[in-house]
Specification:
two-stranded antiparallel sheet, five-stranded mixed beta sheet, 7 strands, 14 helices, alpha/beta, binds zinc ion, single chain
């Protein structure tokens, strides 16, 4: 047998009553009571009478039964810290997404539901979601964190419809990935419908003539007819068309904001006495309303189109 060593405090306690041995041969001296309270799995395991000392089937070390587990010491350490009272062990720091996968897998295996609830905030942290939405989705989905998976699915709309490879992609089955791509596509279709949805522009501005981009401008070319009878300044029509092309791939607020900031820079450079001074103010007012409509449209499709995602979590 390979050499085993002891885990660090508090899993080296002299009065511990059982040893859990990790897959990399680290002995964790622990108290059965803490694990039994946290997990019905361990409660049942510890209730099984231990074979008498000396029988081949049960290794004994320092007078304590040794129970081998398949988790490595890093995962087991995190798992046990969640089970122990906070006066003895602080919750582990799970900033590394990879660690979360292992801990969630183990939590599921050992029926440690409380751990899932503690891990959930990490995969629903907005900063992590913005940076790694697909990884968060895969982890939450695999870990059975339904609400967190739905939230992360929403954040994946900031990524292209066909995403680049990401580290935890193998946590998803082909069916899971298809469900996510279908959701993305349905959101894009829902957003596309806003392009010709004249009433929401009128409901905000009062009338189409009050819409600041429909006025003719002596300094800028105008378009022949935006939305039937009304003409609009050409740079705005170009922005409108281009934004909808981008929204097909990334139907989210960030797409609108990026496109708007680009047109604001471009119009300021035109030095048009009519358009340039007010472009930022007018565009930001408009894009706030527009982005709100996009969010609303996406909210309406998300629950039903994600049903297959929810079912498989
Ligand atoms: Zn102008």
């Amino acid at each position: 047998m390979s050499v085993s060593t002891y885990a660090a405090s508090p899993f080296d306690h002299a009065k511990a009553d059982v040893i859990l041995r990790s897959s990399d041969n680290i002995n964790f001296r622990i108290f059965r009571l803490f694990l039994s309270i946290a997990s019905p799995f361990f409660e049942t395991l510890f209730d099984i009478p231990q074979p008498p000392e000396g029988e081949d089937s049960q290794e004994v070390k320092d007078g304590l039964a040794v129970i081998p587990v398949s988790e490595d010491s890093k995962t087991l350490d995190a798992l046990l810290r969640f089970c122990y009272p906070c006066t003895l062990a602080e919750d582990p720091n799970l900033e590394e997404l990879k660690d979360i996968v292992n801990v969630l897998e183990a939590a599921k295996k050992y029926s440690l539901e409380a751990i899932e609830r503690k891990v959930a905030p990490t995969v629903s942290n907005p900063k992590i979601l913005e940076a790694e939405p697909l990884r968060c989705y895969a982890i939450a989905h695999r870990g059975g964190l339904r609400e967190e998976a739905l939230l992360a699915a929403r954040y994946t709309l900031t990524q292209p419809l066909i995403p680049e490879w990401f580290e935890e992609i193998d946590l998803l089955t082909a069916t899971d990935l298809l469900a996510l791509l279908t959701y993305h596509k349905k959101c894009a279709i829902a957003v596309e419908a806003l392009k010709n949805y004249r009433p929401w522009v009128i409901s905000h501005y009062g009338s189409i003539s009050a819409f600041p981009f429909t006025h003719s401008c002596s300094g800028c070319p105008s378009s022949g007819g935006w939305n039937t009878s009304n003409s609009a300044v050409q740079w705005w029509v170009d922005f409108w068309d281009k934004t909808f092309i981008l929204l097909r791939d990334k139907p989210c607020r960030a797409t609108i904001d990026m496109s708007a900031e680009e047109v604001i820079r471009s119009v300021r450079q035109r030095n048009c006495s009519h358009c340039s001074p007010k472009v930022a103010e007018n565009m930001r007012e408009f894009t706030t309303v527009f982005a709100g409509k996009v969010e609303e449209a996406i909210s309406q499709v998300s629950r039903c189109s994600l049903s297959s995602v929810e079912k498989s979590t």
